[in-house]
């Protein structure tokens, strides 16, 4: 029986070695491994995995193509619903989405859907010439997309396939949003993977202009009134870092995770050939428990620092992907759970020299359903360190809100949009972190796709 | 790519470039800044807008060669191109928010020091175009390193001072400020742009006379769009981001000591120490 085959393990770089380099941790499946793993799929008539995928990829469909040895067919199946399989195969929280509901997971290990998706995506990058381009009939309408992150790329791809002339405006000098500034090279290679999947989006006819800050270089109103766009999708993400508001946060050596990761990822500060500096010192404390915290702490480790995670709840509540926590532990990251910082201390020159913390215990569940941490009296202690990185989440950048007439935002600064991405302003749609606050790549892609559908309906209705 | 259409050296290590960037030129306002990158390995460097020509599509920047990246910028020549030239960023100067009648009544003093003189120019020029003549104090260590004096004379009333007395008032900008005020000059708004230490003391002087004061901070930045927080500064006890909340802030509320300390964050941890650029433009 097919389902008696155990889940095919994936090859990874040795933890001791990889903790000193920025090369990718996971090697992924080769063709034989992928074929064997694909053969485990039961091809359920009513697949639960597809329902749990925010972009509803036909998972049994593409896996069947792998079993049949038709990788071009597998790629085409995924591309119908996602333009970023190599990205998503690497960064999606599969355990709580597709793989979390896999029938095989009830008694054993679920099908490694993420690793198979990655295999197909990588094959498609290597074999771009063997893929058939969808036939696109231009409809003469133009849509502007603000931001080239996952939401913008997904929205632009769907609109381009539907015949729209799409132009993406990116504020930074590189395309990909959080895929290039946020997620590290060792988890998501930039030139080999991100740039290639962006190329595939461009092959659909999407134009991308970097160095344009919508809200400053041009406004959303300019795009609609003067630049001849019929609709605008705002996928500007949640870029504004939060701090705790504790004493010492402006000492030298305190970073937001955004800054630390942007220096490392976007500016390649870890590479001697690049000019941008980065400082990790001898010991780094990262405050937070999400994927961004894991990325920051593992980056610090690779820069040669002893690296510690400080998180106020227990390990069970860590919001990071299970795989990231597992990898971080293998690499020798020290996890200080149920610990909350109260102040950062500095030396006479204003440089960080430690972080004061208290131990916590879990009390009653809060509105998020997680048990809220409560301070243990008298448990104060100090961790000596040179650098503190705050990975506490991010909020949307207020630039679009403050420069766009009639665009409603909520108390948290998020753009108000309905399920389909319609905002309070006619012709302006939004999705991804700009609407939800910081979430995942795949949820942003899902929102981008829904908005593309709504934009299509809106512009067809207008014609 | 963004082409340098002209370059001239203002002092041996300060150069001015006009860069072809039509979209930035179309929307730039006095007080804002741009981010440049010289090459693929380069840093993102924030520079204040020193002038713009909407018709020609050019933006003027002035750079002092002091570190790796500013040296790289100054080594570039007419015909070379920046790989990136993004902006305008930050908020335009507060003066632009005032209604015309109110602006006309204002007695405005600008205090400029060193490489900070060039970014003062678009503000004084803009006021001149609105029919407001401002006083401008320009300070330098010695007369050979004055910049933008002729340009400034065309749009405002210029007062010079040098630390060594080689031209104009003998002393620092604070001394000249005291002198002008002592002679009966009255000001109800002051804008100070220059080295952090000079802004600190000049702002202390205006505080003494109760003159509302704005300073333009040149904090360290990475993205310049509000994403990294490297440029955070304490203003009136609150943490602000220079890139999106500034770059101009109330000079009486800025924690200059913290700002100066943060500005030096990488001085001890930089990658290599470059040779300082020496201008070869003028032979």
Which protein chains make the most extensive interface, counting residues with beta carbons within 8 Å of the other chain's beta carbons?
A-B, 40 and 41 residues
SS summary, helix count of chain A: 18
Given this structure, which CATH class of the largest domain in chain B is correct?
Alpha Beta
How are the strands of the biggest sheet of chain B laid out side by side?
Answer: 12-11-10-9-13-14-17
Query: Which stretches of chain A are low in confidence, meaning pLDDT under 50 for 5 or more residues running?
Result: none
Q: Which structural class do the helices and strands of chain A define? A: alpha/beta
Instruction: Supply the CATH architecture of the largest domain in chain A.
Output: 3-Layer(bba) Sandwich
Query: What is the number of beta strands of chain B?
Result: 17
Provide the CATH topology of the largest domain in chain B.
Rossmann fold
- Distance separating the two termini of chain B: 28 Å
Number of domains of chain B: 2
Q: Please name the CATH topology of the largest domain in chain A.
A: FAD/NAD(P)-binding domain
**In which range does the helix fraction of chain B lie?**
25-40%
Q: Tell me, rounded to a whole number, the average pLDDT of chain B.
A: 92
Count of discrete structural domains of chain A: 3
Radius of gyration of chain B: 18 Å
Oligomer: heterodimer
């Amino acid at each position: 029986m097919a389902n008696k085959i155990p889940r095919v393990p994936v090859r990874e770089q040795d933890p001791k070695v990889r903790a000193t380099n920025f090369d990718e941790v996971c090697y992924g499946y080769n063709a034989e491994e992928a074929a064997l793993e694909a053969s485990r799929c039961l091809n359920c008539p009513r697949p639960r995995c597809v329902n749990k995928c925010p972009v509803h990829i036909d998972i049994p469909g593409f896996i069947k193509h792998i079993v049949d040895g038709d990788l071009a067919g597998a790629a085409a199946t995924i591309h119908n619903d996602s333009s970023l399989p190599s990205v998503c195969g690497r960064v999606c929280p599969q355990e709580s989405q597709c793989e979390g509901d896999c029938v095989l997971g009830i008694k054993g290990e679920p099908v490694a859907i993420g690793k198979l998706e990655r295999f197909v995506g990588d094959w498609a990058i290597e074999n771009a010439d063997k893929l058939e381009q969808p036939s696109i009939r231009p409809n003469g309408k133009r849509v502007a997309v603000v931001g080239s992150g996952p939401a913008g790329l997904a929205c632009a791809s769907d609109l381009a396939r539907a015949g729209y002339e799409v132009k993406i405006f990116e504020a930074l000098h590189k395309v990909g949003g959080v895929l290039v500034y946020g997620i590290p090279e060792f988890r998501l290679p930039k030139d080999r993977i991100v740039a290639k999947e962006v190329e595939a989006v461009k092959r659909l006819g999407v134009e991308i202009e970097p160095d344009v800050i919508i809200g400053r270089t041009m406004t959303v109103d300019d795009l609609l009134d003067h630049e001849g766009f019929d609709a605008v999708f705002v996928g500007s993400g949640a870029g504004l870092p939060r701090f705790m508001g504790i004493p010492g946060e402006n000492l030298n050596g305190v970073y937001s995770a955004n800054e630390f990761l942007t220096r490392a990822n976007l500016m390649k500060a870890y590479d001697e050939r690049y000019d941008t500096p980065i400082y990790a010192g001898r010991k780094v404390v990262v405050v937070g428990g999400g994927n961004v915290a894991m990325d920051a702490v593992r980056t610090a480790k690779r820069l040669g620092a002893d690296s510690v995670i400080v998180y106020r709840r227990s390990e069970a509540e860590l919001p990071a992907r299970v795989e990231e926590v597992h990898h971080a532990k293998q690499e020798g990251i020290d996890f200080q759970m149920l610990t909350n910082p109260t102040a950062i201390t500095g030396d006479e020159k204003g440089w960080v020299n430690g972080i004061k913390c208290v131990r916590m215990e879990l009390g009653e569940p809060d509105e998020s359903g997680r048990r809220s941490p409560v301070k243990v009296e008298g448990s104060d202690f100090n961790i000596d360190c040179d650098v503190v990185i705050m990975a506490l989440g991010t909020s949307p950048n207020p630039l679009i809100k403050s420069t766009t007439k009639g665009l409603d935002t909520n108390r948290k600064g998020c753009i108000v949009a309905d399920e389909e991405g319609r905002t309070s302003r006619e012709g302006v749609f939004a999705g991804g972190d700009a609407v939800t606050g910081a979430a995942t790549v795949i949820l942003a892609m899902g929102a981008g796709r829904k908005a593309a559908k709504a934009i299509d309906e809106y512009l067809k209705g207008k014609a | 790519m963004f082409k340098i259409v002209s370059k001239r050296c203002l002092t041996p290590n300060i150069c001015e470039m006009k860069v072809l960037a039509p979209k930035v030129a179309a929307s730039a306002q006095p007080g804002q800044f741009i981010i440049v990158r010289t090459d693929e390995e380069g840093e993102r460097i924030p520079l204040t807008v020193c002038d713009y020509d909407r018709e020609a599509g050019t933006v003027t920047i002035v750079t002092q060669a002091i570190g790796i990246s500013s040296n790289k910028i100054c080594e570039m020549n007419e015909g070379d191109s920046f790989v990136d030239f993004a902006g305008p960023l930050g908020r335009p100067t507060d003066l632009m928010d005032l209604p015309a009648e109110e602006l006309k009544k204002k007695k405005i003093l600008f205090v400029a020091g060193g490489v900070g003189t060039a970014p003062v120019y678009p503000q004084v020029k803009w006021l001149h175009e609105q029919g407001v003549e401002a006083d401008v104090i320009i300070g330098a260590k010695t007369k050979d390193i004055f910049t933008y004096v002729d340009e400034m004379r065309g749009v405002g009333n210029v007062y010079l001072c040098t630390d060594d007395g080689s031209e104009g008032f003998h002393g620092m900008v604070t001394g000249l400020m005291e002198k002008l005020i002592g002679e009966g000059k009255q000001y109800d708004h002051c804008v100070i742009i220059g080295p952090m230490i000079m802004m600190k003391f000049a702002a202390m002087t205006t505080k003494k006379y109760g003159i509302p004061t704005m300073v333009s901070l040149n904090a360290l930045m990475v993205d310049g769009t509000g994403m990294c927080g490297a440029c955070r500064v304490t203003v009136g006890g609150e943490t602000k981001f220079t890139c999106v909340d500034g770059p101009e802030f109330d000079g009486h509320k800025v924690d200059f000591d913290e700002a100066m300390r943060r500005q030096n964050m990488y001085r001890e941890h930089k990658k290599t120490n470059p040779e300082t650029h020496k201008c070869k433009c003028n032979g």
